[in-house]
Structures are given as structure tokens and as C-alpha cells.
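Entry 14. Structure prediction run on the chain below.
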Amino acid sequence: LKSIVNNAVDAIITIDERGTIETFNPAAERMFGYTIVEAVGQNVRLLMPPPYRDEHDGYIARYLRPREARIIGIGREVVGLRKDGTTFPLELAVGEIDHRGRFTGTLRDISDRRKLEWHLTESQVEEHHHMAQELHDEMGGHITGIGMLAQTLQTRLKEAGSPLAVKAEDRVKSIDVAHKRLRSVVRGLMPVEAVPGGLMAAFQHLAKQAETVHDISCQFQCDTPVHLADMTAATHLFRIAQEALNNAVRHGKPRHVAISLTQTEERLEVAVA
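Output returned:
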């Protein structure tokens, strides 16, 4: 068993009911940067950044009293803290050892997976932006041109007293509807425009759209201008707010919703109330 644990690719750590580390395999040494001598005897909170560090003792206490298994036997994603102060994403599985108040945690570093997922997401956002730009510039330009020609034709037919003027007017309206639908598709693909203030403009449009579609009062609040150059992050923030707004309308039955965007130093915060 010792050979298996020592040669495991995943970090394996055991703790007692107080959270004190009792065993720390070589994979855990490589993962966290602490030696076995440095880790054993320390509280496992040593390996956790806030807020996980603050929540850990509560998890153990709740489990030991009513056997409330919030994390026992359940895989979950957490954040680890290395000796050098850097953090990284982890996949954690916790088990109890024979109901003796001893727990074992198996941890896997998923940093590479997260990087790949982020790269794929960035590629998807870039592709959506490219498609939206093509639709806006090419198709949008054609529809605008056709609409102008149709409008000119309708005006001349009306001036000439032609009975076809009414049909021409219907065609102008149809082209206008098509143009609006195209703009809606473009906005769906690229909700945040790659311009200064694009994120703020997207939230403002989201609030107005909510008022029209859901018949509620919806306001966007942003006391200080926020400019986010990272379009992938900006798109993620918009999608998060959009989903939160949809959930608020669906489950909260609100009369008023407020979307706020604030920035402090390097931190952005989006809130939907």
C-alpha cells in the first residue's frame, strides 16, 4: 500500500479530525512545494487559499456531528495554494478511513485542462466575432443597399401614382425587418463590441431588452467608466450577467432588476439584483 501511495501520480494526503496532516505522498510534495517534513503536523488549511481555508474546519465539524457528507465521497473542484503563494485548480475526492475520524484526500492538478478549456473558449469567441463581422459588413451592407434601392423605387412609384407603390412599400418594410433580424443575430454572436466601453454598452442594451421582452423595470448602473480590452473575458462577463438576469426573471418574478458593473484596481464585479 505504501508503494502504491508513494508512486501515485495524484497527490494523496491523510488528515485527522482536527485537520492535521498525517501523511503526505511524493506527488503532494511536487504539487504543493512542501516536503513531507514541512507538511506533516501542519493543518491542511496550509494548502488552501481563502475562502476554502476558512470553510474547511466547518466541513469537518458538520460531518463529525450529524454525519452530513457535504464533501465525503463526492468529487469537487477546489483551488490549491502552493508554498510559493501561487494558486491552481484542483480536482478533489475525499474519503473517510474506516469511520475512525481519519480522512484521505486524493488531488489532481487540472491546470493544463483549464488552460486548454480557456484556449478553446478564446478560439470560439474569436470565431464568433469573425462571423459577426462578416455578417455585419457583407450581408448587412448588401441589405442596406437593397433597402435604399427599394425605398427609392417606392418613392418614385408613389410620385407617379402607380398602384405598385403599395407593394413596393411592403417590400421596403420586409427588408427593414430582415435587417433588424440580421442585427439581432450579429449581436447574439458578438454581444460585446471590440471598442472602448463595449462592455458597458452591451449591459445597457441588455437592460433595455429586458424591459421590452419581460415588461419589467431594468436599470444598468456603472458609476465609473469600465474599459476591458480582453474580449474573451468581456464576453464571459456578459454571458454570466445575461444568465443571471434570465434566472432572476424566471424564478424571482421581479418588478425591478438592477445590473451593476464596478471596477476596483484589477478586479471587476458584475451584480444582478
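Strands lie at 11-15, 21-24, 76-81, 87-96, 103-109, 217-221, 256-264, 267-272.
Filed with the rest of this week's runs.
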